[in-house]
Amino acid sequence: MKRKNIIAIGLIVILALTSLTGCGAGSKEEKKSGSSDKVSITNVSYDPTRELYEEYNKIFAKHWKEEKGQDVEITQSHGGSGKQALEVANGLEADVVTLALEYDVKAVQDAGLIEDGWVDEFDNDSSPYTSTIVFLVRKGNPKNIKDWDDLTKDGVGVITPNPKTSGGARWNYLAAWAYADKLYNGNETKIKDFMKKLYQNVLVLDSGARGATTSFVENGQGDVLIAWENEAYLSVKDYPDDYEIITPSISILAQPSVAVVDSVVDKKGTRDVATEYLNYLYSDEAQRIAGDNYYRPSNEKILKEYKDVFDLDINLVTIKDFGGWDKAQKTHFADGGVFDQIYEE
Fold first, then answer.
1. Taking CA atoms, which of 27, 147, 183, 283 is between 20 and 30 Å from 36?
2. Where exactly does CATH 3.40.190.10 map onto the chain?
3. Per residue in 114-166, pLDDT tens?
């Protein structure tokens, strides 16, 4: 039975029971939140989405008030995506997760908190916006960094987060691997040597993408930051005279994923508001907020409105080129995987 049918049947049963006991249909929400006029939800997200959701939460609260006559309070939690997934799995109460990649949401699912089929719950594999990986360099590009191979040269200090805790760092790693794979025609020995040289140049492995940005931008470490596209644009926006963006010849389509945390919303009675919170991310208004915050809207028509912002012709590989996230995680990022091998060396 499909998930939506199960939910529909569940609602019918609840309505029937409440009519027999003389309770209103909104009584569960009222008991959990203390007032039917207000509801609270928590969005556990990854590092660079702070500004996006600060803006989005305002329009969603207005939307929900207009639609349901109810005030909604949204709490944000941010950190490295892998670390955030672990926190939720270990008890951090989230009504929704909006994480850096599908594998991190699956980790929450594997903890028994999210039902099967979440990836099909919303459009585009439950990815309302996308991004990619670029380089942020200091103004004038003093080290003349043009592509991934420049990051392996002697004397180039690289800043990137830790793939063991950061979703963005895993996208960074895979984008670099894709470049080396093409450069060396799939010769894995040479690819690993390339990756080893790159990570030998990494000065610090922060736990999350925002921490890496702080190391590069505020603390002045390194010559190049491997960054989410949106994070790089925000840095240039804040410091237009200090930084510039370099787009590599090959990058990766980064697809952040969103999901309702079923066990939490069923306990709290917040399924309706949590589901609409994620569904409204696909509205035209929200898609433009994503674009304004330098995420690529999943709506192709709205994405084209930002053709002067984004390089829409960039050569992007996808996670499918790595056999999907389960295979990529097992091969590269699990304990004893390729990343551990090259970094320990």
1. 283
2. 32-127+256-305, 131-254+314-343
3. 999 999 999 999 999 999 999 999 999 999 999 999 999 999 999 999 999 99
Contacts of 300 by beta carbon, 8 Å cutoff, 6+ apart:
none
Instruction: Give the pLDDT mean for 228-247.
Output: 96
Angle between helices 167-183 and 81-89 (to 10 degrees): 130
The topology under which CATH files domain 131-254+314-343 is D-Maltodextrin-Binding Protein; domain 2 (3.40.190)
What is the CATH T-level fold of the domain 32-127+256-305, as seen in this structure?
D-Maltodextrin-Binding Protein; domain 2 (3.40.190)
Predicted local distance difference test score (pLDDT) of residue 16: 40
Give the distance from CA 230 to its chain's centroid: 11
For residue 131, CA distances in Å to 135, 211, 228 come to: 13, 18, 7
pTM: 0.85
Run of H or E residues at 340: helix 338-344
